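Slide 14.
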Amino acid sequence: MSRYVLLLLVVSATYPQEVRKAAEPPQAQSPPLDYRLGPSDVLSISVLGLKDFDRSVTVSNSGRIRVPHIGILNVLDMTTLQLETDLARRLRERNLVKDPWVQVRVTASRSQAVYVLGEVIMPGQYLLKDGMRVLDLVSLGLGVNDVTSTQVYLYRQRGRDSDQPSTTDRLGMYEVAHIDLQELFQGKKPELNVRLQGGDILYCPEKKPEFFYVIGDLVKPGPIEMISGQTVMASRAVSWAGGPTKTAKLSKGIVLRYDKTGARQEFAVDFKALLAGKKADFAILPNDVVFIPGSAGKTLAYGLLSIVPGVGTMSAVMR
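Slide 15: predicted structure.
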């Protein structure tokens, strides 16, 4: 079964629609001289003066072909020139042809296409070139746009040797690697600039809006969407919620935060001192919960914080 048919079966229920579309076989292209052979490539092999040698063969999923008079050969990652040289040597060693002239052509290059999909300027399929990496593929797609998430995903068929990002999740017959484009662009983690292989799919999704939550004795408590690239300081968070009510106890504020592991952190904040410039201000992070207590009745809302398992339930808490 073609690897692209397999990819369609796997991604149809698991991956985004853009990724599923990438499973369609690439259109015929003339591969460059440094093109590396891989699974599902179709080769035309001919030897001058040896007619029964001429044939069309398809590279197997393990990277092998069967050649008459020679047997099974592993051609994975070889160029056509390297294969021609190897076949000529084997023919001489077997005394089949004294001075063989071998020609190998790629008639269908199915394994060495790579894809960039989602929120890039020009998504689509591109021919893999030797040494191509993630940033090269982003450049071929003419870069990201204003709504591209910094978190992108590299889909790769399992079982192929490669330099992998540090964190991967295995889904069916494919791996998906999480890549932070911001860290990559800034040079903080150059190891994320992974070398690509045939069939790789780089999916750049649209970024999701991020919120923080302000509840308690405020004029307009609720979720507040964060503006991309803008830092929200704790002193401003209260004003974004319309400011405190007359019964609000600003000095008894609390900030609830979840770290990257999902562990819950809770710390007291004197917002009155903060607004007066007597305490150091700090940045509010996405999914932070700012609580300003007030009257006894509304202070009971604080009890809800003790049973909130995660920020995903905050919308229910505030209704």
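Speaker note: The mean pLDDT is 78.
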